[in-house]
């Protein structure tokens, strides 16, 4: 790759300049704009690599992508404890090092980023964990990332941004920033690997050679109907029975809706980086991501934003309602109309909108919460979704960490009421969810925040790949159709597994 990078901010638009008294962060535009996949392969065996990837761009979503690795500090919580703030140390550092944005650049310019697993919700709500946890992933894995490569896809431009913090996160230094920037520049200049050659090198990484999990240590597993290589923690009759139990809970008045999933599982046959590139090409999504941490990785093609904060404006975009795409255009349009007009799917979506309005009201200004878009259809590679949008204005005294505490995990993947739904999920799903239905996120030192809901997501560890799929169950749900919907959602992921 040609590595013609600008030597200072002079080549950026004029409004991107900063006062000489505050020269940090250092910013250099990467010219020509690099291919994300190529840089992903260059950095793919780095420690704690995180890619937040708008693999599918639209006019309103998927504008920015980010790549970062080797954080200066790691934060990890193996198992959340009720009423123990998981963000305590992060809050303190974040408050100490608030910085202004460099105007004109993508919103994340360095700071905190990583994984919040579904069970982190036990920090704020008391519910049991599912009995099986073969993968033993942490509930929180977050890094402080001092440098980031940031893409603006609408402008077809990319920048290397370096904050210049020391290892103890106490001070910023222009000398540290310059040294770190030059190191990353050199790697970008050298990123000319042939894709297949690079994947061959990665296949020799011990990451892919972990011991297989013995089947006798797993929760009960059954071959997936029509695909003997993929196992599920439910047989089809068992899944239908559990959906019927949820419907009974609904008629008993316990809940209005619960999100229920089956965990699919198969032996790993490729490096997580290769799996990510396959998934990216076959099932592109606006909130995709890759996160490699220690001996495990998360690979996601999520279509769903969880929370976004910009200038204290909060946005969440719940997905409820799914139809499988049709190969014939006319039939595909009919499917779209059917989804839009479905009373069952609209009811499911509106319930979660009400739940999220309630969650946001705990930290947003009174009267600021609104629903600009309700039950609109969005089309993806293999499915169509019913999507809404809820917005509010964060109270001045509240932070993004307060927002997470008020709303995590996302209501679209729990149910309503949230706590009782999570109790029923833990009762009926035999395995912990882990990253699934959790979130990949960034929280910039400039106050910008964005996050996804980890659906359409693989977790890779110990020679196995797991990828749960689920959906919302309401009183009108038909168990067989709910089972088939999970398989529709898995279709794009299964195709990415086929090498």
TrEMBL record:
<dbReference type="GO" id="GO:0000162">
    <property type="term" value="P:L-tryptophan biosynthetic process"/>
</dbReference>
<protein>
    <recommendedName>
        <fullName>aminodeoxychorismate synthase</fullName>
        <ecNumber>2.6.1.85</ecNumber>
    </recommendedName>
</protein>
<keyword id="KW-0032">Aminotransferase</keyword>
<feature type="domain" description="Chorismate-utilising enzyme C-terminal">
    <location>
        <begin position="236"/>
        <end position="489"/>
    </location>
</feature>
<dbReference type="InterPro" id="IPR005801">
    <property type="entry name" value="ADC_synthase"/>
</dbReference>
<dbReference type="Pfam" id="PF04715">
    <property type="entry name" value="Anth_synt_I_N"/>
</dbReference>
<dbReference type="InterPro" id="IPR006805">
    <property type="entry name" value="Anth_synth_I_N"/>
</dbReference>
<dbReference type="InterPro" id="IPR019999">
    <property type="entry name" value="Anth_synth_I-like"/>
</dbReference>
<dbReference type="GO" id="GO:0009396">
    <property type="term" value="P:folic acid-containing compound biosynthetic process"/>
</dbReference>
<feature type="domain" description="Anthranilate synthase component I N-terminal">
    <location>
        <begin position="37"/>
        <end position="159"/>
    </location>
</feature>
<dbReference type="InterPro" id="IPR015890">
    <property type="entry name" value="Chorismate_C"/>
</dbReference>
<dbReference type="Pfam" id="PF00425">
    <property type="entry name" value="Chorismate_bind"/>
</dbReference>
<dbReference type="GO" id="GO:0046820">
    <property type="term" value="F:4-amino-4-deoxychorismate synthase activity"/>
</dbReference>
<dbReference type="InterPro" id="IPR005802">
    <property type="entry name" value="ADC_synth_comp_1"/>
</dbReference>
<keyword id="KW-0808">Transferase</keyword>
